[in-house]
Amino acid sequence: ADSEAFVRKHAWAVWCFSAVTLAFHVFWVLWIFQYLRMGLYMSQNASYGVLAAFIAFWLVTKRSSYFKRMPQLATVLWIFSALVLVATFVTPDLGPVNQRFHEAHPSSAMGLFLLPISTFGFLLCPYLDVTFHHARQQLGSKQRGRIGFSVGFGLMFALMIVLTTRYAPMLVDALNGQQANPTQTAWIGAVLLAHILFQWVFTVQVHLDRVKAMPIKSVPPYNMLIGVALLAGLIGFFATNLPTIAGLSGGEIVYRCFIGAYGLVFPTYVLYRAVLARNGTKPMSMFAVWGAIVLATPMFWLGFMQGESVWLAPGMGIVLMIAAIGLVNRKQGVTGSVAGQ
Question: What is the structure's pLDDT at 337?
Fold first, then answer.
């Protein structure tokens, strides 16, 4: 009931989150696909096999969606991806690549300053994820919902993040123009690409399904969602022609803008409009939400785009400071009303 009430109350924000998520996925796959083939070595026959598997999985996903069998498909897909994760550790190919990457890119302050922003986004963005709400509503009681969220987000999703870190160095090398060398394990590149494409298809489909199920009067029409995705696809397709900034390619600039939405825009909304409005208190105004975002954006830009990561700290500080001011004002307002009674 709480989840359903949240989606009704914040329907516009939930819709925007799905719209941005779909746009991000469509942009990403059209921008990065050429680099996937550069970074993940495989034979020509393996490429054809992955293409055939992709088409087959897409058809299975559409059929599973129609017959409401997406939970079963999700289980099969996660098991496949978990096996791919195991393969990245037991095969001899990715270890040297990761070691070479980390030696060429030693730890810097960027990671330290990104940690609180990543935590901010990971903790609060799920509130706006309509697929999380759907899963929560299927579990029934609060206790089962909390267990499901803890297992799903804290374990299953976390393992997929670990898998991403395993192959990410190869994609970074590809973005820098380096062609992947032949691997000792002939099939590792193919299964990694299959994992990426299967997860992409599944994520896009579940968001489309859940957005379709939202109350049509409280959100924009479905065609607008498709239009946003198509526009993002055009940007991704022509990303290599976009201008560079501070040594970043046009595609990477757009990619980092999407990450900024997940690290600043959406979690700020949730903090101000939902978290601080618990226990019946009035949420902070949308003026405060957009004010904090506008004030923090230049600092996030310097941190993400210009490589001056130290600016991420004051950017995050502005968001939290305004939230603290709002919290204090609300407590004083509650105290004053009680005293007046």
Answer: 46
Amino acid at 332: Q
Return phi, psi of residue 248, to 5°: -95, 135
Q: Return the pLDDT at 106.
A: 64
CB 97 within 8 A of CB 170: yes
Name the residue among 321, 298, 324, 322 with its Cα closest to residue 311: 298
Paired strand residues for 248: 245
Task: Name the phi and psi angles at 245, rounded to 5.
Answer: -140, 125
Tokens matching residue 40: 């993940």
DSSP codes, 202-248 = HHHHHHHHHHHTS-TTTS--HHHHHHHHHHHHHHHHTGGGSPPBTTB
Please report the DSSP string for 96-165 in residue order: HHHHHHHHHS---HHHHHHHHHHHHHHHHGGGG-HHHHHHHHHH-SHHHHHHHHHHIIIIIIHHHHHHHH
pTM above 0.85, yes or no: yes
200-225 pLDDT, tens digit per residue, is 999 999 999 999 888 767 788 889 99
What is the pLDDT, as a whole number, of residue 336? Answer: 46
Length of the chain: 341
Domain ranges of the chain: 1-115+127-237, 239-335
pLDDT of residue 31: 93
Question: CB–CB of 166/88 below 8 Å?
Answer: yes
Q: What's the rounded Cα separation, in Å, for the pair 281 and 296? A: 25
pLDDT lower than 50: segments of the chain: 334-341
Compute the distance between CA of residue 318 and CA of residue 295 in angstroms, rounded to an integer: 7
